[in-house]
Amino acid sequence: MKIISLFYLLNAKIQEYGFLYCLKKGHPYFLRYVVIFYKNLIFHIKYPIRKLIILFRERSILNDFDHQTKSSHTLYAFYDFAVAPATFDIVTFLVLAEIARKNDCCDRIHLIIVPGHDSGFRTGDLERYNERSWNNTKYDYDYLKWRLDNIVIPCCSLLPTCTDISVFSTREEALKFERTFAGKKFPNNYSVYYPDSIIPNDGYHHVKFLFELIRQKNEMPNLKAPKYGIDIVSTWIRQHCGQRKLITITLRESPYTKERNSNLKEWVRFIRSLDEKIYFPVIIRDSEEAMNPLPTELVGLTIFPEAPFNVHLRAAVYQLSYLCLSVSNGPGVIYVYNSKIPYLIFVPSKSEQINLILRNEFPPGSQPIICSAFQRWVMEDDTFDNISREFNQLCEDIENSRCK
Q1: CB neighbours of 103 closer than 8 A, spacing ≥ 6?
Q2: Angstrom distance (rounded) from CA 158 to CA 311
Q3: What's the confidence (pLDDT) of residue 48?
Q4: Single residue among 192, 215, 238 that ends a domain in this structure
Q5: CATH value at residue 357
Q6: Residue 322 covered by a domain
Q7: Distance CA 138, CA 157 (A)
Q8: 351 or 340: which carries more pLDDT confidence?
Q9: Are residues 394 and 252 in the same domain?
């Protein structure tokens, strides 16, 4: 309105005195009105033009973003809690996605976490935890949420090409994202509506599918601990370990499926038998028991208390170890999927399901196809004799390779 008023005022002065007279003689307010008029004109024109420029830039960015996400640059990996658990199985899923990324010639992975139908998780998971508990531990949905926040999400940082994570609170949101942005997907025919239709009975995250992909001459990806985690653990090693060889023992002490737990007395006996001048054994306890009082057998031994609750530090400890040892357990996948970490994994006869899977995948005396030279699965109980025999043999093989 102000600029219109100035326009009429200037027009009135010109009609009254004439334009040339106002310009030559300089009416006392004419030039002032002209300046004010043009300033206001520029003000009212400048901001709409600026808004148009900003809008154009935003549209250009959105077009570029849309082009990128729907092109071959990004692989969208959907980890759906309708069919997948909130466990370290996420690691195997990520390794499978990485193989798919390479085959599809994508630059990066964007992990999409889709909530399940049972309070965001897989139906029946909570009941299974409570049914298998042997010490009357009662689990609730907060426990599953804790596993999402402290296991599933942090594990994504171990795969360098997994650059983005989106966690949706509803399946409807995930569906909109899938339809709007997801060009290339893993699994490649995934659908939020029908996740079961493309996932076999044991789930896409299952290790046997990885074995099959490796047989097809796919290179197994390597996980990698974040650099800052490596720096933290390196400082700890310098202060405690010195020049000795770090031996990391991961215990399974879970209150559910107790039959799969580590034989604590046998492991402690093995640890105390090691030459302290050569080796520095450190124990990583199970996160389920890490805050409970230390068992009498472990008193006097070195415990790394932060690792059970921090995936990145756990991965760094494994990566910097001379050798990792454990029974088959969830966190072990972190060193299983790093060909540079020597390890021994014992599969006790009481672990019936795991035993069945592994025995079907490789014949007696051989090793799984994913193992490198100093990585071994031992299909025997974790007794002192078995642990000591396999440990001494693997250490001898490692040292002999360094002498060549």
Answers
A1: 218
A2: 9
A3: 66
A4: 215
A5: 3.40.50.2000
A6: yes
A7: 30
A8: 340
A9: yes
